[in-house]
Amino acid sequence: MTARVSKSLYIKTYGCQMNVYDSDRMAEALAAHGYNRVDTAETADLVILNTCHIREKAAEKVYSELGRLRRLRDRREAEGQSGMLLAVAGCVAQAEGEAMLERAAFVDVVVGPQAYHRLPELLARRAREQGGQIDTDFPVESKFDELPRQVESSPVSAFLTVQEGCDKFCSFCVVPYTRGAEVSRPAAAVLAEARQLVAAGAREITLLGQNVNGYHGDGPDGRTWSLGRLVRALAEVDGLARIRYTTSHPRDMDEELIRAHGEVPQLMPFLHLPVQSGSDSVLEAMNRKYTAADFLRIVEKLRGQRPDMALSSDFIVGFPGESDEDFAATMRLVEQVGFALSFSFKYSPRPGTPGATMRKQVHEDTKSARLATLQATLDAQARAFNEATVGRVLPVLLERAGRHAGQLVGRTPYLQGVHVEGRGHAIGDLVQVRIDACYPHSLSGTVLEPDPGEEIAA
Ligand code: SAH
Ligand code: SF4
Ligand code: F3S
Predict the structure, then answer these.
(1) Which residues does residue 435 pair with via DSSP β-bridges, in sequence order?
(2) Which domains does the chain have, with CATH numbers?
(3) What separation in Å is there between the alpha carbon of 163 and the centre of ligand 2?
C-alpha cells in the first residue's frame, strides 16, 4: 500500500459505543495510508464491517451484509470498475476467526478488536499474498499506544475509551471472549486525549469501557486511579462542560464514584446501570454477583447524592431457569426504581458461554410474552419521565443541526434529545431551554435568553 494515493474507506459500525470509537480510530490509522472516509460502500476501495456478537441476530446480520457487499463487488468488477477490499473487524471477527474465512472466503481481512493497529500491515499483506488475512491475537502491545490520536475536529459530544475488556464472565455474555481481559489506559493518556478532543470542539465527553467503572489506571502520581478519581481530574479540563460514562457494572459502583455524582457538577445526573434481572436466583445463575437489594441500595445512594439522578438499564428475559416468580421479581424491581430509559432483550444463547448449555432453557414464546410485558412497563416509565420534564427549564447542550432550517438539536442532562429554534445560537452552546412538548423520541423547547453575565450550569 502506497501512502498518499487517495483511496476511499467506508466503515459500517454495529453494536456498542466502543465500536463507534474504534471505527474512528481505524479511520485515523488508515488516513495515514491515504484512505479518506466516505459514507457509502457503493464506490469505496475498502469496506470495513465493525461487528457485534452480543446476540445471535446481531451476528447473523453481518453475514447477510457480507453477501450484499460481495454482490456489489461482483457487479463493479463486471462493469470494469475498480475492485473493493472487504474487511471484517469487531467482535464477530474475534469470535469467528478462521471460521469466518471458511464461511465467507471472499473476505480479505479479518481483524479482532485488539489488533486494529495492525490493519495497515494486514491490508499490505493481502495485496502481496493470496487469500484472506487474519489477526485475532491479543497482542502484548496496546492498540491505544500504537494508534496515536489525531483529532482534527470533534463532535460536540465525543467518546473516549478508558477501559476495555471484561473479567466478569457473566454466564450469558461473549464480551470477555471477544474483547479479552480488563485493561485500563493510564490516566495521563486519557487526560491528554480529553484535552485534544476539547481543543477540537468537544464540550461533552462520554468515557467508555465494557466495565467503565472497573477502571483502575495508572495515575500520574504513581497510584492507581479509580473512575471517580479520573472524573475529578477531567472536571479540571478547561472547556469541558459535561462528563458521562458507560457502561457500568453495579458491582463496581464504589463510594468514590457515587460521591463524585454529588460533588462534580460536570458529571451528569444520568447513569446507565444494567441490572439484567430482579431475581436473586437468576442474578446468581448469571454470575452477576449482586442481589436486587444491592442494586436498590446503590440507586438510593446515588439519589442521596443527586436527587434528580435518572437511571437507565439493560434487562434480559428468559435466562435459563427463569420462572414466572423470577420474572415477577424483575417487574417489581422496575416498579421500585422507575427507569428513564431501558434496553431489554430476550436471552440469546451464545456459543461458548456457560448459559448456552444450561438446562431449563426458556421457551421462545415465554421469552416473547415476558419481553412484551416488561417493555410495556419500561416504555410507560420512559414516557412518564419525559412528560415530567415538560414545563421545566433545563440546560441543553446543542449538538447538531435539526431537520428543518434554523432548527438545532441538543441534549438535556438526562440524555433526552431536544429540538429548538436555533436563532442566534450555535452548535456547542449550552443554553437554558424551557421544555414545551414531549414526543415519542424527543422533546421540543424554547431557548430562554440568559440574563447578562449569567453563568449557565452544565
Ligand atoms: N458490560 C455491560 C453489558 C454489555 S452487553 C454490563 O455488564 O452490563 C449489553 C447488554 O446486552 C447487556 O447488558 C445485556 O442486557 C445484553 N446481552 C448481553 N448478552 C446477551 C445475551 N446472550 N442475550 C441477550 N442479551 C444479552
Ligand atoms: Fe458481559 Fe458481564 Fe462483562 Fe458486562 S460485565 S461485558 S455483561 S461479562
Ligand atoms: Fe457487541 Fe462487542 Fe460491543 S459484542 S456490544 S460490539 S463489545
Answers:
(1) 445
(2) 7-135 (3.40.50.12160), 143-387 (3.80.30.20), 393-448 (2.40.50.140)
(3) 13
